[in-house]
Write a structure and sequence with these properties.
Layout: E1 3-8, H1 14-26, E2 30-35, H2 37-47, H3 53-64, E3 73-76, E4 94-100, H4 102-110, H5 116-126, E5 131-135, H6 142-154, E6 157-158, H7 172-186
Parallel strand pairs: 1-2, 1-4, 2-3, 4-5, 5-6
Helix pairs in contact: 1-2, 1-7, 4-6
EC number: 2.5.1.129
Pfam families: Flavoprotein
Keywords: Flavoprotein, FMN, Prenyltransferase, Transferase
């Protein structure tokens, strides 16, 4: 089992966060979860899910019939800069910001560290652990692109929420799983079953 940090911020695209959390827990990995205020609001408005982390996990476990092991899911307050995630000594395999608001992208790129999401992301960069940022905003202005480039140059993986359609998605969940599969690939954590078919030009 590996532990992963998932941060949910306020860009539209709660389906990506929901399916990311589901895949991590279903496959037996540990989860450290942080929600920004707007991330919590996003989950309520777009997916009818609780915006409080513990209740969110309970709701997802009920929705997807997931049984958790002891301490598999740990919750952190975004204002708690003394949380374990703020230290490089806390052992995690990587971090995913999904969806990533451009406010959060800018804060991480600038090294501000005013919230736990920002601080944990910078810790993953300094420890040379995978940091995957999933922006959904469109179109990009120059400021957005420059901030994303700064994250890329610092070692982050910028993985836009731009799902493919060759798998012929039938549901919103299918689109979410496409992005989740790409994230898990970057973390070298393939799910126990393929979330989406891989591209096969012969098919």
């Amino acid at each position: 089992m590996k532990r992963l940090v998932v941060a949910v911020t306020g860009a539209s695209g709660a389906i990506y966060a929901e399916r990311m959390i589901k895949a991590i827990l279903e496959n037996g990995h540990g989860l450290d979860l942080v929600l920004s205020n707007y991330g919590a609001r996003l989950l309520k408005e777009e997916r009818d899910l609780p915006g409080e982390p513990r209740r969110l996990i309970d709701a997802l476990c009920e929705r997807y019939k997931i049984s958790l092991a002891d301490d598999q899911a740990v919750f952190h307050n975004n204002s708690d800069l003394g949380a374990p995630l703020a230290s490089g000594s806390y052992p995690v395999a990587g971090m995913v910001v999904v969806p990533a608001s451009m406010k959060t992208v800018g804060a991480i790129a600038s090294g501000l560290g005013d919230t736990l999401v920002d601080r944990a992301a910078m810790v993953n960069l300094k420890e040379r652990r995978p940091l995957i940022v999933v922006p959904r905003e469109t179109p990009y202005n120059r400021i957005f692109m420059e901030n994303l480039l700064r994250l890329h140059d610092a070692g982050a993986i910028v993985l836009p929420a731009a799902p493919g359609f060759y798998q012929k998605p039938k549901t919103l969940e299918d689109l979410g799983d496409f992005i989740v599969a790409r994230v898990l690939d970057r973390l070298d954590l393939p799910p126990s079953q393929d979330l989406v078919p891989r591209w096969d030009p012969k098919s």
